[in-house]
Amino acid sequence: MTDVPAVQAPLVQDWIDRAKRADPRAVARLISWIEDSSPAVPEVMAQLAPTAGRARVIGLTGAPGVGKSTTTSALIAGYRKRDQRVGVIAVDPSSPFSGGALLGDRIRMQDHALDDGVFIRSMASRGHLGGLAATTPQAVRVFEAAGVDVVIIETVGVGQSEVEVAGTADTTVVLLAPGMGDGIQAAKAGILEVGDVFCVNKADRDGADSTAREVRHMISLADRDPHRWEPQVVKAVASRGEVDELLAVIDLHQEWLTEDDRLEQRRQRRATEEITALTLAHFRRRIGTDGHQQLLVLAQAVATGSLDPYSAADRLIATIGED
Q1: CA-to-CA distance for 305 and 127, rounded, in angstroms?
Q2: Residue 263 located in a structural domain
Q3: Are 179 and 85 in contact (CB under 8 A)?
Q4: Is residue 219 exposed (0-12), middle (13-18) or buried (19+ Cβ within 10 Å)?
């Protein structure tokens, strides 16, 4: 199933126990196992299951240049002032050579590197679309087990495909910036449908007010269910740590979520997506091993017209579904 060597059970238990005591090295080790698809991961996830759902999960997305890392750093400072522990998953583009993250956590957020109440992890997208790493949900569980109060997920920042974060976070913040045409980009990307909060960063620049007005206008044009959250538009200057308005609206959204079981419903949808993704990943691995030769035969039949793709898919499912 994987080329990663197995880890001895006592060693696995030791790392899990240390992670639950908020040992930074253990937290990092467990997330590395998750990223590398270690055989130890199912056992780790089984033991961490009772701690799931303890942290608030905030997704931060937006186009390159809007200041996502700077805003993340400012939010960390804001939550630390409240004496809350913070975990950050900063998803970076993958190296085309190693598959690793191109940017490192120490480069991104130096101010918090020595704070034992902050865990920062850069994770490579490894070609996964949607702006996240495929293993992001499992990494969130590790942070929760370590006693983190808030998890901030910062997406890759590739432009128009980062809507997956809405299915992973409790609150999704979309960052915009003056003079970048972000209002139009948001409409094109469908971001208006997934953003809970729209934050115009670099609000000390010309055009910030007009950008905020433009986004509010677009939100007002959208068909809205009166029972759904009305997206809010705020401004910030993250480079100066001026994110109080953003923090306040995130709190407001969290309060709204706790009413009428909305948070529970959102997290149940998130769990559904996680289970589906893991199931699909399992079948892809099976195709790459047990079903590879069968796939080649079926592909040739479809290419020559002797078999239709639906029948081929049914046959492949039947092949890899056999024990």
Answers
A1: 32
A2: no
A3: no
A4: middle
Q: Which helix (H) or strand (E) holds 123?
A: strand 118-124
Residues 36 and 68 in one domain: no
Strands lying side by side in the sheet with 197-200:
118-124, 86-92, 150-154, 56-61, 171-176, 197-200, 232-235
DSSP 52-121: TT-SEEEEEE--TTS-HHHHHHHHHHHHHHTT--EEEEEEEPBPTTT-SBSS-HHHH-GGGTT-TTEEEE
Q: Please, are residues 85 and 150 in contact by the beta-carbon 8 Å criterion?
A: yes
Residue 141's pLDDT band (cuts 50, 70, 90) = very high
Residue 287 counted as domain residue = yes
Task: Give the Cα separation of 222 and 231 in Å (integer).
Answer: 11
User: What pLDDT shows up at residue 184?
Assistant: 57
Three-state secondary-structure class, residue 199: strand
For residue 127, pLDDT over 60 is answered with no
Same-domain status, 184 and 288: no
Query: How many other CB atoms are found less than 10 A from the CB of residue 32?
Result: 12
pLDDT in tens, 86-123: 999 988 765 444 444 445 444 556 678 778 899 998 88
Task: Count structural domains, the chain.
Answer: 3
Whole-angstrom distance, CA of residue 123 vs CA of residue 126 = 9
Beta carbons within 8 Å of 80's beta carbon, 6+ residues apart: 86, 112, 115, 117, 118
| pLDDT value at 170 more than 90 | yes
Co-location of 288 and 175 in the same domain:
no
Question: What pairing do the DSSP bridges indicate for beta strands 171-176 and 197-200?
Answer: parallel
